Amino acid sequence: MLSELGSQQAGSSDFIDGESREVRSPLTGTRNDVYRREAPPLFARAAREALARADVEASAITHVVTASCTGFFAPGPDYRLVRDLGLVTTVERDHLGFVGCAAAFPALRQAARICAADPHAVVLVVCGEICSIHLRASSDPEQIVASAVFADGAAAAVVTARASTDAPSLALEGFATALTSEGEDDMRWIIGDHGFEMTLTAEVPRIVGREVRDALAPVLARDGRVDRWLVHPGGRSILDRFETALDLPGDALELSRDVLRRYGNMSSATVLFILARMLEEPDLVDGSRAIGVAFGPGLTVESALLTARVPTVVNADEIAGLRPEPITAG
User: Fold this and answer.
1) Which of 42, 60, 183, 253 has CA 20 to 30 A from 226's CA?
2) Measured between alpha carbons, how far is 128 from 118 in angstroms, rounded to an integer?
3) pLDDT 10s digits, 11-32
4) Catalytic-labelled residue, pool 101, 115, 127, 131
């Protein structure tokens, strides 16, 4: 939980009974109040870190694309970023709401298309979620698993068509979307009276295992060589099924597994953490091809083809100054 919930940990709160330590079931409006208060500073912090890593001034941003599925308010996170970061008021804004765990790739796709249409564009992409405000007590094993795996977090990226000569970057080569033949009732995210209600059945990993190869066929057809797999860790079993379906070696999804171990499933923000970890690897090779994959309600499979661009490092002193651009996630 974020500050409001953590600060009340020793006593009662809307979410925890201070005496029994039982989980309470506050109304959706109460939960969303926490989101309205806590989401904007979370988005702003991620954005500031991304801008600093990319060495891009806030005044250079021309477009903002945000994604979130754990709360709603208007004017929303995209508007607040303009105010909180002091962006120029003519910045164009898009918000992707309720797209779920797969939202980062549609957000990056939107940014890439903006840059393709306007070579001078500098797009700030921010994905942020406060999943913990929708925690609810349940004896249903599937609901317990859903509550246990999700976490809070935000990540941001700077996307631009500008050439980068002094920092590792990821070129956005293409995107693909596919719906599996089943899964509409196995991964759902709806608004209930006592929070947003996640359905995540045990069938989801099996569907991923059966259908992911066909779902990724269009992006795989563009280039048969894949050096890295950057897969959204919806859960350990999803990664296991994905690995088996694609006949991948045991360490192929280590970045995804490590982010899951460290941070949990932060919904839309998670895959940006994984992209950032790839950019930080000291042995990253220029021209490495990566495929990013995320799964959303439906089941929807969103994927992206990415190519690493790594400048030549002249001396060790330059390593400390590496800045991920055009994509920076943190």
Assistant:
1) 183
2) 26
3) 447 877 777 777 788 999 999 9
4) 101
